[in-house]
Structure of Fumarylacetoacetase:
Amino acid sequence: MSFVKIEEDSDFSMHNLPFGVFSTRDNPRPRIGVAIGDQILDLGVIKHLFTGPVLSAHQDVFGQPTLNALMGLGHEAWKEARGVLKKLLSANESTLRDDVTLRRDYTDFYSSRDHATNVGIMFRGKENALMPNWLRLPVGYHGRASSIVVSGTPIRRPMGQMRPDPEKPPVFGPSKQMDIELEMAFFVGAGNKLGEPIPIEKAHEHIFGMVLMNDWSARDIQAWEYVPLGPFLGKNFGTTISPWVVPMEALLPFVQPNPVQDPKPLPYLSHDDPYTFNINLFVSVKGDAMKEAATICKSNFKYMYWTMKQQLAHQTVNGCNVRPGDLLASGTISGPDPESFGSMLELSWRGSKSIDLGEGGSRTFLKDGDEVTLTGYCQGHGYRVGFGPCHGKIIPALQQ
Amino acid sequence: MSFVKIEEDSDFSMHNLPFGVFSTRDNPRPRIGVAIGDQILDLGVIKHLFTGPVLSAHQDVFGQPTLNALMGLGHEAWKEARGVLKKLLSANESTLRDDVTLRRDYTDFYSSRDHATNVGIMFRGKENALMPNWLRLPVGYHGRASSIVVSGTPIRRPMGQMRPDPEKPPVFGPSKQMDIELEMAFFVGAGNKLGEPIPIEKAHEHIFGMVLMNDWSARDIQAWEYVPLGPFLGKNFGTTISPWVVPMEALLPFVQPNPVQDPKPLPYLSHDDPYTFNINLFVSVKGDAMKEAATICKSNFKYMYWTMKQQLAHQTVNGCNVRPGDLLASGTISGPDPESFGSMLELSWRGSKSIDLGEGGSRTFLKDGDEVTLTGYCQGHGYRVGFGPCHGKIIPALQQ
């Protein structure tokens, strides 16, 4: 289909065409492009070829240094762009840039039932594992946008206040319970006006595309700080996303039936069309002394209980406005099997058992020098639609 | 001191010189200015007069449509600008604009001991009023930046999910417990790099100035959603700030000793210099049928337990990065006397008694058409340093 050679296991097949921001050695100016195989199509160079009814008047969005302007044009524009791109391919020696978007607000949901149940059992016991509101609405909270970074950015172990012994005063020091969270997130495209909700029937038109996300967490800091207003410093020292935004159009062929929701959600959260996606997910850890990374989690995005449509409808039902570049994340994705648990908190069952890394190594939480990589892809017949790696290495705390 | 006539009770005396964004009938372009009496000094027109060692190379910041660039220059630049401004005054017929800054991340703290105690007594009883972490660190959470609006913007009553009867399923409808929160907030000036905390000794240099804030709250939505990840839709449908940013230099003459903190905070939160401010605060409500607004709260910013230096040092101690234009808010400010309680939740003691508005009117929570105005000022000898009004009117819910 393309003159670019694409391996069968490439994340970036013709069926994908994810958007990103890149620069080249010869031209360091950040500009937007589309990944295809191991090449990047520079959209600025071919912007005059977007001559369809919507884009002909907005070719300038392809010359921007971020994706926000394209996202803001809305669903019809994205479909039109995708149609043009399928016909056009060229090659460039390129390096990825970190500013995919000018990110604004960031929401983190808590929409995996297995994850919420696991955490509930650990902290409140089996009888009260799920809070009363959990099956009624997609619980979420506002996260920190400033500390969202792109794959490859090192993550410094945070200093902070914690209370390891509840009988003694709190102490200050480097976190001893550095964890990962396997998540996915979607970028909002066109936004809404303050005071005017996005109904669930229109939600898809506002969802631009998806990335992988590692929501690094310091469990000891989080445990001490989070009552009653939620996570804060235990989460906002770094959140890593994968560098390419995979359009929803590329993911729709991998849609499958939604999970049964009982009790039935209120009407503003109800939709019958499938919006659950079969995306294979993996987490690997490579310690300083290890030759190869060890896979510690095999999961799938299909394990989500609440859909992205439900999340966006809920986020805006009170009139809250979303804007192009806003990011809404799934929360930790865990499946029913222990190997699919999406955090070390769950994999080590709150530190009570060790996670085997092979080569004689093991972990309960992360050590300095550990490299964590999230990967994910949809498997088609002879091709993949993938995300590229979401990678970060833990560097030692800055001692004061 | 100035050729502009300034009334003794003007918010904008020569001792204030707050920054804002304005436009005029003749020139609708948004630009930055300084309020003086009932006039505005256009900083773009006089930018060539900023010839000091820092600003001479950065005169362009005064030609920007927001304050972010000036904020980002840092403390020495702000002091230099203030020195120049005290010598220069001119007049313009002007209207205020809403985009004071390109706002980015927004944090809301919970730093009034009386407020936290009142809420704790109502929801958990007198014995467990303050959570164990409250006296150890400034509890806070991430708020929504997109829905921060400037004084005068109408606030639509939000629709949402709530559970008024815990024995029955949740219901959907307009909030019946619309409340205000009397807060103040500060803008971050120069930021820090991800991974590099701002030590408390340097915090003042990163704090640009302050505004009044009304953190509108839907108590019924909040009560049902907030466990375990904190407030979300109960808070993010609108947050109003006053239009002028009062520089910290203008507030320093009104500093007073900090409250005694027992237990003594950890070293990263400890500072001995006073950073508590004597700012008189008022909340008034005017119903549709009322001729005059009724004052429902008289309070003072000096009632805060945690200082802004402590808030900023805590926010960044884990390496979280802040950026010019970030907003950090106090949380509801309540004092020891019932008349100083900063929310209707407290003033009506969770709806159990009515708040007298005179003229035969009363409230427990807000009605459609109610106009709420926050005002605040420091009282000098024969002059004031004030904030201008922080105003909003409740408009009816958008029925689906």
Notes: The CA atoms of residues 292 and 364 of chain A lie 19 Å apart. Chain A has a mean pLDDT of 93.
